[in-house]
Design goal:
The structure holds 2 protein chains of 2 kinds. Chain A has helices at residues 17-24, 29-56, 60-64, 66-71, 80-100, 109-120, 125-144, 151-172, 191-218, 222-237, 240-254, 263-288, 292-300, 305-335, 347-355, 364-393. By secondary structure, chain A is an all-alpha fold. Chain A is globular, with a radius of gyration of 26 Å. Chain B folds into 2 domains: 81-174 and 244-388, MetI-like (MetI-like fold), CATH 1.10.3720; 177-242, no CATH class. A 4-stranded antiparallel β-sheet of chain B has the order 1-2-3-8. Chain B has a two-stranded antiparallel ribbon with strand order 4-5. A two-stranded antiparallel ribbon of chain B has the order 6-7. Classes of the chains: A mainly alpha, B alpha+beta.
Chain lengths: 398, 393
């Protein structure tokens, strides 16, 4: 008697809870041992941590100093400017999103989740509303970008390019001591704001420098390529802290006497140089991914060396390295904590300063866990969002 | 007909001749770079002269006059700056080597368990990787130092695990004290090494001849261990005696005490780097295509043989280059020790800089030292990569 496929019972084991447990947790004796070990480990780690986190921990050290952690010594009556910059960011992102991503808008919902998540954290009620307003401005941007106006694409690029200088002007101030936007010196920037600004400015300024270095390294002119290789390898071969230290101590020496540079600016310069060397290597990877046929085709069409680079090679190469640049940005964000060693008040520096307050002695666990959680949310959020976007939009594929 | 022929006599003007332009462009670039740097250099010399200094390394011979918390070699305040710097270099090397060792072991375990078929183990290690990779190392370091090792109980109430004491003065562990036979035992170890190398070489020769690769590293390490253990008991007196730490007054005596700074730096570096190594190992193992597993099964290899002879050698090619850069990162990251007060190269350099005021020289020296470490490692790595590179048909 023959059995046809349709006579057989469906492989239910695959779909039952017990079957799943057996396959994934208790497949063999060793497997079961591992499972028991993992359960014990989770229990042994989680129980004291949760007991501490919800019981003994004095989280009020974070709640009391939230303003310090976020913006440092930035004048309290000027903090609205930071909010304005954030709202602008939400609007620009929303606008760009709805202009460029037609038909796949749903992938962007992960971004909407960020303010919702942040609003769950124990901020005051006003702060929560301020955070939720981020989504409002995001939707405003989305509404602005609806419709099929072809000039919107140009506007979205212009708005992105304008956003950074405008944001920095709003934060840094324009009108001297009084007026509408009084100057806030960079040395007063602090907290998470300084951390993010250091990373953002570092990546933006290092971009042209890094692309030039990558092109220089690829150049057929030996002297140009040697000098670029020398710079890149020098910077990549030493720890960031030595570069920060060097800039901190030697930038005042390098400049003509009489020019004073603030500590934050020195850190900016160091981070930019550091990031440029890594950027150059990433961009070089992109350049190498372009097949030689592209060069040949473009020469055959009569384009000069410069126009080939500017219109054929670089656009493709840069598109290919966008995902890597996101992870470089995340790395840079984490690296900016090193300015704490130069006694700047980034979010970790603020943490140390808060711990110096006798009122908060013995709360180092709380403070450092809070700082670590901030970084974790930022960098995990960014890498998750960028992965989602890459898969849905096909960025990085050619 | 004359007109269609391109004239060769009429030469291109030199400002459009590419050969001239290439040379000219490089000269201009060089002049610009050299000009820029000499401008900076001149400013620096002027600024230094205003402080009454000229760059020179002669200060390295002067007396340091500061203490260093821990040192692998004898060091006193009266020693020179260069000896202090050397202490720093050794400390950096020490923590880097120990860190690399543990980070590799831990990282491989993480990477392999991430690929485990056991759901819980795979999830646990992926949670670990996702958390650790997204937190700055410096935060980890200050956390381990400020929130863990420094907050351990005082020496009197030290936490005790058998002979190991955990306190805010560090971790005291039993340690061996060399006896008179120690130097002869070192000779025995050397002999054991020679035996192991000979065994390994013979096995390799046999393996090449028969085409059945034997477990070279296993047998060589076994023979090394055998000679070492036999030597230990043959010698008239044990070469090392254990020395347990005991509480004496306000401190420990005996044993070996790992300072909280060292422990914090080491744990921070290890658990941070291990997360990255775990990812690398996972990517390396996944890079070996499934067909390789199936083919080696079809050839009748056992799963251990598959792992050892098929998967591992191919995964190594993917793993080694990024692994080296993680080792280098660990070494460079050990400079963050300055934040928690472990006297590594950077911290000692900073102290020297503050004392002598020789910013330019000290920074140049430190950068040069880190840079040469990186360059030596990458030269070695390029050689190694060349050696294990896939031999294409």
């Amino acid at each position: 008697m023959t059995i046809s496929i349709s006579d057989l019972a469906p492989p239910t084991e695959r779909y039952t809870v017990l079957g799943w447990l057996k396959r994934n947790l208790f497949d063999s004796f060793g497997d079961s041992l591992l499972t028991v070990f993992a359960i014990w480990l989770t229990y042994a780690m989680l129980k004291p941590s949760l007991a501490w986190g919800f019981g003994e921990a004095r989280w009020n050290v974070v709640a009391d100093n939230l303003k310090l952690f976020m913006v440092g010594r930035y004048p309290a009556e000027q903090v609205w400017r930071v909010w304005v910059v954030l709202y602008l960011l939400a609007a620009v992102i929303g606008f760009t999103w709805s202009v460029w991503v037609k038909g796949k808008e749903k992938a962007g919902f992960v971004l909407i989740g960020i303010p919702l998540f942040l609003a769950l954290l124990p901020f005051g009620m006003t702060t929560r509303l301020m955070i939720l307003a981020l989504d409002l401005f995001g939707f405003l941007g989305i509404l602005l970008g609806r419709g099929d106006n072809p000039s919107f694409k140009r506007w979205s690029i212009i708005s992105m390019l304008l956003y950074f200088p405008v944001g920095i002007v709003i934060i840094g101030g324009l009108t001297g001591d009084g007026g509408f936007l009084p100057t806030v010196k960079p040395d007063l920037w602090g907290g998470l704001m300084l951390t993010i600004l250091l990373a953002v400015i570092g990546i933006i300024f290092s971009f042209p420098l890094g692309v030039s270095l990558a092109l220089g390294r690829q150049s057929s002119l030996p002297i140009v390529s040697w000098i670029c290789v020398g710079f890149i390898e020098l910077v990549r071969g030493v720890p960031l802290i030595t570069i920060l230290f060097m800039m901190d101590l030697m930038l005042p020496l390098f400049l003509p006497s009489g020019i004073r540079v603030e500590g934050v600016i020195r850190a900016f310069v160091a981070i930019t140089l550091f990031s440029a060397a890594y950027m150059a290597e990433n961009v070089r990877g992109g350049l190498q991914s372009i097949s030689i046929g592209q060069y040949e085709a473009s020469h055959a069409l009569g384009l000069s060396g410069f126009t080939t680079m500017a219109f054929i090679i670089l656009p493709q190469a840069l598109k290919a390295v966008i995902p890597i640049l996101v992870s470089q940005f995340i790395g840079l964000l984490k690296d900016t904590t090193l300015v704490m060693i130069l006694s700047l008040f980034d979010v970790l520096g603020i943490g140390k300063a808060v711990l110096g307050n006798p009122e908060y002695i013995g709360t180092s666990k709380e403070v450092y866990i809070f700082v670590a959680a901030l970084f974790w949310v930022l960098s995990y959020g960014m890498s998750y969002a960028s992965q989602r976007l890459e898969t849905t939009l096909g960025v990085g594929e050619r | 007909m004359e007109k269609t022929k391109y004239s060769t006599e009429e030469s291109i003007p030199f400002w459009r001749d590419e050969r001239v332009l290439r040379v000219l462009g490089q000269v201009v670039f060089l002049v610009a770079v050299v000009g820029f740097f000499s401008y900076l250099y001149n400013n620096m010399i002027t600024a230094l002269a205003a402080q009454g200094m000229t760059p020179s390394f002669e200060f390295l011979g002067r007396t340091a006059g500061f203490d260093i918390g821990e040192s692998l070699i004898d060091y006193v305040r009266a020693d020179t700056y260069s000896r202090a710097l050397f202490v720093g270099i050794l400390n950096t090397a020490y923590v880097s080597i120990v860190g690399v060792f543990f980070a590799t072991i831990f990282g491989v375990i993480l990477g392999v368990s991430r690929l485990s078929t056991n759901f819980l183990i795979a999830k646990l290690s992926s949670i670990y990787l996702e958390i650790l990779r997204n937190i700055p190392l410096l935060v980890l370091l200050v956390f381990w130092y400020g929130a863990v090792f420094i907050t351990l109980p005082r020496v009197k109430e030290a936490i005790t695990f058998g002979p190991v004491f955990l306190s805010n003065r560090g971790i005291a562990v039993p340690w061996g004290i060399p006896t008179e036979t120690w130097s002869s035992y070192l000779m025995v170890l050397l002999g054991a090494l020679v035996v192991a190398i000979i065994v390994g070489w013979r096995l390799k020769v046999v393996g090449d001849r028969t085409g059945r690769p034997p477990l070279i590293s296993l047998w060589s390490s076994l023979s090394f261990l055998t000679v070492a253990i036999v030597g230990w008991f043959v010698l008239p007196q044990a070469p090392l005696v254990t020395d347990n730490p005991v509480l004496e007054g306000l401190n420990f005596s005996g044993g070996y005490v790992f300072s909280p700074e060292f422990m914090a730096l080491l744990s921070g570096l290890v658990i941070y780097t291990a997360a990255f190594i775990g990812e690398i190992v996972r990517a390396g193992i996944m890079s070996v295509s499934k067909g390789q597993h199936e083919a080696s099964k079809a050839l009748g290899l056992t799963s251990f043989q598959t792992l050892r002879l098929i998967i591992f050698p191919q995964a190594m090619r993917v793993i080694v280059p990024p692994l080296t850069s993680q080792y280098l990162n660990l070494t460079k990251n050990s400079s963050l020790a300055v934040a928690i007060g472990y006297p590594d190269l950077f911290a000692v350099g900073g102290t020297i800089l503050n004392q002598s005021g020789r910013a330019v020289e000290v920074i140049a020296l430190m950068m040069g030292l880190y840079l040469s470490t990186s360059l030596i490692t990458s030269v070695f790595m390029n050689w190694y990569n060349e050696k294990i590179k896939m031999v294409e048909r």
